Structure formats: structure tokens, C-alpha cells
Amino acid sequence: MARPQESFGKKEKEKKRLKKREEKMKKKEERKSNPKSGDLEDMLVYVDENGQLTDTPPDPNKKKEKVDAESIVIGVPKKEYIEEDPFHKGKVEFFNDSKGFGFINDLDSQEKYFVHISELVDEVKEGDNVIFEIERGMKGMNAVRVKKG
Question: Which residues form the CSD domain (predicted)?
Fold first, then answer.
């Protein structure tokens, strides 16, 4: 029977594996010979007056003034609702009747919105001023309920 061939790479991998195992055993023996105290005092961490973590207890003389517990707000602050006009004014930049879609340029924000022929209330053509609302579509914001204006 033929002996399996040992390449240089295989030998090197085996050497690394044995070396790693040996180092692991040394660390294990070292831990057994020098056990740590395991006291709670060794594991405690304190926060100093600047908010930094330290192993020494904070000095009570350096403590800042007390915080009024009543002034702490827990939760999310209520969002103020701003009444916004849902209608936007724009100009039809491009419209293809045969394909049934186009683009409207918002006059306030200069954003371009896609519009489909099914969302038209009035018939429009390129250059018409229109009033429309926007809704989120599959690929972004779309102009809906488009009227001449």
C-alpha cells in the first residue's frame, strides 16, 4: 500500500496546530497555579463625577448638585403636528399619452414626481400648471389626484 503524501503545507499546518495546543495547555497550567482572588471588590467599577469608569470609589466632596427627579421626562416627547396643505402646485414637464405616464415638477421644492394616467382628474399636456397630492409608490413619491390649476 502506498503511503499518503505529506506536502509542505500539510506539515506546516500540523506544526501550527500542535504549537497552538501546547500554548493552550501552558495557559491552562498557569491559571491553575495562579488563581485570581475573585473578590467582589476586584470586580467593581465606579463612575466618577465626569461620567468616566474607574476602579476607585468617587469622592463625595466632588459630587455635583442633586438632580430634581420631577424634571426628568421618561418617554418620547409629543410631536407637534404642523398643519400642511396636502395640495402641491406644479407644472407638467413631460407627458406621453401613448404610454400613459409623465413627470410633474413641483414649483415649491423643484422635486420631480411621477404621474400615471390613471391618477389624472383632468386631461393634461406638457406645460400645463396643475394641482396635485403626493403619495408613496413602489419606487418613490408619485403625484396623485392631478387637476389642472
Answer: 87-148
| Enclosing domain of residue 121 | 87-148
Cα angle: 72, vertex 78, 81; to 5 degrees: 155
C-beta atoms surrounding 130 within 10 Å: 22
Using one digit for the tens of pLDDT, what is the confidence trace for 26-66? 999 988 887 666 666 667 888 887 788 888 887 777 777 77
Q: Would you say residue 117 lies in a domain?
A: yes
Q: List all residues 6 or more positions away from 62 whose beta carbon is below 8 Å from its beta carbon.
A: 48, 49
What's the start-to-end Cα distance of the chain, in Å?
Answer: 93
In a domain, 47, yes or no: no
- What are the C-alpha distances in Å from 33 to residues 38, 112, 115, 133? 15, 74, 77, 76
pTM over 0.85: no
